[in-house]
């Protein structure tokens, strides 16, 4: 279980078999609140080449999830607490249904996410994703909170034309035609070029040992969105209105933040003492785990 953290450039070449929340990189992320902290989780440039199998021995809906990168993500729906970008799934992802299940919580990237504000962009799936016993498989995780907005979706490509794009509270959504790379259109030795062309950039390079496209690790610092630490009033005042920040210690501020804040500010249990309103205006922001003192 990962409560909060980030994975950059991780590769799993092994097979994973389990009966609860199965993923190629991690099984369960953002698992509710631990010590009052809501987790921010990010997967950048991760690749799974092994076979990921949920063997069907489960007894409740919460555990019957499987995905190529993660199995289950419990993330707040109000902000972008889960990011999956520049990742690849090339092995197989399988959920074996038993007599107790009727749901299809299996996805190429992830099995389940309760966040409608997660970000999925520039990923590729050339894995065989199978729900044994019949049923529909998807690219994105099952999302009971509703469809992820298009603004949070970059290109995500699959070679499996039988997969749908998303399964949410409204049902299944079809895969857009431009998201399907037909196997017949990919010549031997050109998969990396095809993936880069489909995604519209040259971020993937060929790994000669794995023989699959992997994200160029030198580009990770350019695309990662690791939260930045705030340690004093000057740093607080200089925050990007759309940035991702956490409070590293108690601070005192004398003036309100001057702009409309639409990012993430995680207090991590620390305190800000102020004699003015902390934020003049919030729009689509997440402010959490913060103690405010003063008058």
Could you explain the architecture of this structure?
- The protein is mainly β and 295 residues long.
- It is built from 3 helices and 34 strands.
- It has helices at 191-199, 220-223, 233-237; strands at 5-8, 11-12, 16-18, 22-23, 26-29, 33-34, 37-38, 41-44, 47-48, 51-54, 66-67, 70-73, 82-85, 88-89, 92-96, 106-107, 110-113, 119-121, 123-125, 128-132, 156-158, 166-168, 171-173, 204-207, 212-215, 228-230, 244-247, 251-253, 257-261, 264-266, 271-274, 279-282, 286-288, 291-294.
- The strands form 11 sheets. Strands 2-9-14-19-21 form a 5-stranded parallel beta sheet, covered by helices on one side. A 4-stranded parallel beta sheet has the order 1-8-13-18, with no helix packed on it.
- Strand 24 (204-207) and strand 25 form a beta hairpin.
- The longest helix is centred in the middle third of the chain and has 9 residues, at 191-199.
Question: Nutshell version of this structure?
Answer:
The protein has helices spanning 191-199, 220-223, 233-237; strands at 5-8, 11-12, 16-18, 22-23, 26-29, 33-34, 37-38, 41-44, 47-48, 51-54, 66-67, 70-73, 82-85, 88-89, 92-96, 106-107, 110-113, 119-121, 123-125, 128-132, 156-158, 166-168, 171-173, 204-207, 212-215, 228-230, 244-247, 251-253, 257-261, 264-266, 271-274, 279-282, 286-288, 291-294.
